[in-house]
Amino acid sequence: MRHHLRHRLPSPSRVLDTPGLRWLRPWLDHPALWGLQRRRVAMGFAVGMFSGLMPGPTQMLTAGVLALLLRVNLPVALLTTLYTNPFTYLPLYYLAYRYGCLLLGQDTGSTMSLSSLSQPGHWRVHEVLAWLEGLGWPLLVGVLALGLTLALAGYALVAVSWRCAVGRAWRKRKESRGADGTYPAE
Questions:
Q1: Is the dihedral of CA 50, 56, 83, 37 positive or negative?
Q2: Residues 117 and 123 sit within 8 Å (Cβ to Cβ)
Q3: Which of 4-8, 74-78, 97-101, 151-155 shows the highest mean pLDDT?
Q4: Following DSSP, what letter does each residue of 127-182 receive, concatenated?
Q5: Residues contacting residue 158 through CB under 8 Å, at least 6 positions apart
Q6: pLDDT score of 14
Q7: What pLDDT does 123 receive?
Q8: In terms of Cα–Cα distance, which of 136, 142, 15 is closest to 73?
């Protein structure tokens, strides 16, 4: 697993030598932020899943700050936020809203619908803000709850996958041994 990740993630020195990031070197030059241990990568994935639901431009900033505070794999945390994009953002926020309604025990039909807005290509800022205000607490609670749920599921998925990959490699290595317990000469 480390082999695959090591070749896909940027090296710390390459990132830290980037002209725009040199001023962050004192904070980013910690080995824990670049380590490829199962728990650090799984937590980095969880941080990215949680941060991916934050509003627009704050996703990577949130993931970076949480990765720094929790000392988890920074590149994995940042890359994982990319699961949200213009195609997935609205369905995820709708799911978060429904999740929030469920958690708060509210009827989902009592709030404003998307059809209350004018034509999608002609949305006015005040119409969108009024629509979002109508969503209120269910959306806020739902985004946080869905973020935590996705983070827990992501952590479990990465931890179990990593463990299975290590077990498979261990069995393969064990099977390649000879009857006397030594590896055959090549």
A1: negative
A2: yes
A3: 151-155
A4: HHHHHHHHHHHHHHHHHHHHHHHHHHHHHHHHHHHHHHHHHHHHHHHHHTS-TTSS
A5: 38, 41, 42, 45, 46
A6: 72
A7: 61
A8: 15
Say which residue the tokens 């290595």 belong to.
173
Write down the residue that tokens 């949680």 correspond to: 50
Structure-block tokens of residue 136:
């209120």
CA distances to 34, 57, 89 from 121, in Å? 43, 22, 17
Q: How is residue 35 written in tokens?
A: 């380590």
Q: Which residue has the tokens 């936020």?
A: 81
Indicate the residue type of 96: A
Return the structure tokens found at 118.
């004018």
Left (φ > 0), alpha (ψ -120 to 50) or beta: where does 178 sit?
beta
Q: State the Cα–Cα distance between residues 3 and 23, nearest whole angstrom.
A: 30
